[in-house]
Amino acid sequence: MNLTDPIFTDKDRAREYLERQRWADGVYCPHCGGVDKCKKLEGKSHRPGLYQCGDCRKQFTVTVGTVFERSKVPLNKWLLATFLMASSKKGMSAHQLHRTIGVTYKTAWFMFHRIREAMRDGELAPMGGGGGTVESDETFIGTDPTYKGSRRVYHHKMKVLSLVDRDTGKARSFVVDRLSQHDLVPILKENIDRESRLMTDQAPWYRQLRADFAGHEHVDHSKDEYARGDVTTNTVEGYFSIFKRGMKGVYQHCGKQHLHRYLAEFDFRYSNRAAKEIDDTTRANMILKNADGKRLTYRRINSVVA
Fold first, then answer.
1. Straight-line distance from the first to the last Cα atom of the chain, in angstroms, rounded to the nearest whole number
2. 256-271 vs 234-246: helix axis angle to the nearest 10?
3. CA atoms of 173 and 127, how far apart (whole Å)
4. Which of 162, 193, 236, 273 could make a disulfide contact with 135, Cβ separation 3.0–4.6 Å?
5. DSSP 166
6. Residues 9 and 29 in one domain
7. What's the CA gap between 66 and 183, in Å, rounded?
């Protein structure tokens, strides 16, 4: 798909495209979930794409219940922004988007945060099932505005824990307040299958994990050990290299209240990268389908808990 495609220039074509993606198995009501009595309202008195549910009697369009709901930005510009986000390896700045599609910077910033919300996987199944291998590591970025203590070493930095399933290529990342067994071990136990092999570095918070998984092996970076056979954390460190190039080279600044959405963006692209034979159009369509049920308001996105 190229940028001259009609879905990027015509809002009706864009709406029809989104309908095909969201309602591939048939139209359903986003209010009550009804599927049997959804009728398209025709005629000049109704706007294009308007439906009515025969069960709850409410009207709706394809954008209701998605991140695109109640937006004044034409839907064709939303699809273009989604395609640009899906096709960029290390992200695209809101300034670049506002120049490209002709919206204000604030609008472009909000659009990208909505799209990041649609990129959020929400997958709850443990990683590494069936005896797979999961790598775990942590990194630091920016400054944590909530930290009031010493700026010694990494303590004043925002902290990120990432897990990468070596077999499926999936990545899952978390913003954490502290690096300790108390904070990290529950995340590992909840997100990694007990039959998995866990690969980490020599950090002290990874100790005492052998009984929780099929195996726990580590490399000792303090002794310049980065691989011992298949024992390595190079895969997750490769993910961090892409993440940091994007955060430092493209976005440059990120508040802690928004960091989890940037992580969702990089997790999505890494988990669905070209190396897995998933092209840009497929990634964009995955975002459009995943936008269902993820309404994001301006108040929520700017709140401290966003």
1. 33
2. 120
3. 12
4. 236
5. T
6. no
7. 33
What is the span of the domain harbouring residue 254?
133-268
Structural tokens at position 88: 């960029």
- The answer to whether the Cα torsion of 269, 270, 272, 277 is positive or negative is positive
Give me the phi and psi of 125, to 5 degrees please.
-65, 135
What the block records as the tokens of 125 is 């199944």
237 with 306, same domain: the answer is: no
- Rounded distance between C-alpha atoms, residue 244 and residue 266, angstroms: 10
Say how far apart CA 138 and CA 140 lie, in whole Å.
Answer: 7
Residue 213 and residue 192 in contact, taking contact as beta carbons nearer than 8 Å: yes
> Which tokens in the block code for residue 242?
């892409």
The enclosing domain of 154 has a CATH number of 3.30.420.10
Look at residue 112 and tell me if it is in a domain: yes
Q: How far apart are CA 287 and CA 119, in angstroms?
A: 6
Number of domains observed in the structure of the chain: 3
DSSP code of residue 292: B
Give the contacts of 53 (CB within 8 A, at least 6 positions apart): 29, 31, 32, 34, 37, 38, 59, 60
Q: Is residue 45 within a helix (H) or strand (E), and if so which, with residue range?
A: none
pTM: 0.91
Nearest 5°: the CA angle 85, 63, 251 is 25
Is residue 42 located within the same domain as residue 101?
no
Look at residue 284 and give its three-state secondary structure: helix
- Tokens matching residue 90: 């290390």
Q: Does 302 reside within a domain?
A: yes
